[in-house]
Structure prediction request, 406 residues.
Amino acid sequence: MNIVVQKYGGSSIGSTEKIKKVADKIIRTKKAGKDVVVIVSAMGKNTDELVNLAKSISGKPDPREMDVLLTTGEQVSISLLSMALIEKGYKAISFTGSQLNIQTTSSHQKARIMDIDVTKVTEALKEGKIVVVAGFQGVTEDNDFTTLGRGGSDTSAVALAAKLEGTCEIYTDVDGIYAMDPRRLKNAKKIPRISYDEMMEMASNGAGVMHYRAVELAHKYDIPLYVASTFSDEPGTIIDNGGGKTMEEAVVTGMASSLEDIQITVLNLPSPTKSLYRLFGQLGEKGINVDMISQMLTEDNLMHVSFTAPKDDLWLVEKVLREWQQQDPTIQWEINEDIAKISAVGLGMRSHAGVAAKVFELMSDNNIEVKMVTTSEIRITWVVVREKEQQVIDLIGHHFGLEMSL
Ligand code: ADP
Ligand code: ASP
Ligand code: MG
Prediction:
């Protein structure tokens, strides 16, 4: 079979007019002789609306019920898209995650796909049907509904492409991957081809254009991803393993920024090493994903330790710290929600030193305090006060050549 998996995001199917246009695009591919499997997200901002509905009932909605609610969004769009295809004279059939037995782990709202039973998909393809599958959702062993985390339809698409041994195309409201979100950096350069490693670093540090786990999965199964616009024929971006010349030329390929983290500073910790072990052990047990860490020893041999964690986990972090304070009332902490985490990413950093030095020089020349720093082989991430975020994006974009030359 010559299978192509195409994924259409929420903004591409935000209205019934758009759904009809997407149907035309799918039909063009079908007419070109491909077997088409389509993954769709919920229409427009529907998932946000469902989240808001839940929050108007409960500050902390029950995770299982939340997934029952959120999976409805994709059920609406798969049925409407299939109807549009049928209306245009093509055979089509929609499937929810549970109908295809998209088996996931049981962690609601951040479930991971374990396996997919594609029998129904291949049977339908053999009957000449276009298959439309709900993204973002799956089921546990006990048949409870799960979702894969916001933006997770990309991951559904890659998982299906892997299972069906097909190619994978991600259609969205932007015509490819840019060196920085084009909404944030005016004149950002489009990247014709980017490596899995760089895209994973960008996606996990705020580039919401791709779900991190989709890129991870594509890398694992060595599936090239083609990211392009739903409504234009502009050439998009290929995400693959390739070490093309374009990637070698630049030291910094792209950047990303995230406002989704908080900085926590715990003051006056006694016996530093033991305290660190205990603090991060307890945070880990609660499933809190601690990212950046820095520490400072005081003259009295007490320690201040700062770390970042996802904003959504603030209540859990506070719970851990309050429990600890009951045993040791001298411990105090400060929470800073007013931060931005900026990352510069590039394979070229492996072979070129000096990116960190240049970043610090730029920050220093512009009187921007760097609160925390972390690096990987191909990334540097640093935290600044939120009000400086745009200035930092512009500075880095300009100095590392991430803008289009006019
Ligand atoms: P979809 O609904 O199709 O999944 P998303 O909103 O998840 O779309 O992703 C597309 C958006 O990602 C774009 O509108 C763009 O603003 C944003 N984005 C963030 N970083 C990048 C980047 N590096 N390149 C392109 N788009 C980016
Ligand atoms: N509808 C889901 C969301 O808004 C999944 C997705 O768009 O990929 O997060
Ligand atoms: Mg998305």
Notes: The domain at 3-248 is CATH 3.40.1160.10 (Carbamate kinase). DSSP finds twelve helices and 20 strands in the chain. The longest strand covers residues 261-269. The chain has a mean pLDDT of 94.
